[in-house]
Amino acid sequence: MAALTPEPRPKIPIGLVLRRGLRRRCPRCGEGPLFRRWIEVHERCSACGLLYQTDHGDTWGFVLIMDRVPLFIGIVLVYFGFRSTSMTLGIGFLVGLLVPLIATTPNREGLAIAMVYLWRIYLPDPSDPIHQREYVIEKRGN
Ligand SMILES: [Zn+2]
Q1: Ligand 1: distance of its center to the CA of 67 in Å?
Q2: Dihedral sign for Cα atoms in the order 13, 58, 73, 93
Q3: In the chain, what are the domain boundaries?
Q4: Strand partners, 43
Q5: For 10-58, what is each residue's pLDDT tens digit?
Q6: Ligand 1 center from residue 30 Cα (angstroms)
Q7: How far, in Å, is the centroid of ligand 1 from the Cα of 101?
Q8: DSSP 3-state assignment of 86?
């Protein structure tokens, strides 16, 4: 009697997937854009057809975590002694926190979508269409 062995899971280059998300590209193929405008997510990848978000709540959780990173820098600065001595310095401090927070929003959201993609690969849900056929990630270094 043959022993049942699970099918080998395809090796997913985690760093490559995260870099693709950071570059606002499809986490699976690296070709299709994630967003059609500022942060409006395409439903599927135009190159490989990957459904980006099966449940928007999954992505939202990672986006909330990613949003805290720039704010954490401000908290660290205040904790280690930054004090506003004038209105100009205080406004400059807030602008210095808000501009990077806003400017990196698509990159951080792309990273969150890449994290959800890895989540879907490593913690598979049988109802997720991503597991209905075998996918292969090409190692192109992008
Ligand atoms: Zn793709």
Answers
A1: 25
A2: positive
A3: 14-131
A4: none
A5: 678 999 999 999 999 999 999 999 999 888 999 999 999 999 988 778 7
A6: 6
A7: 27
A8: coil
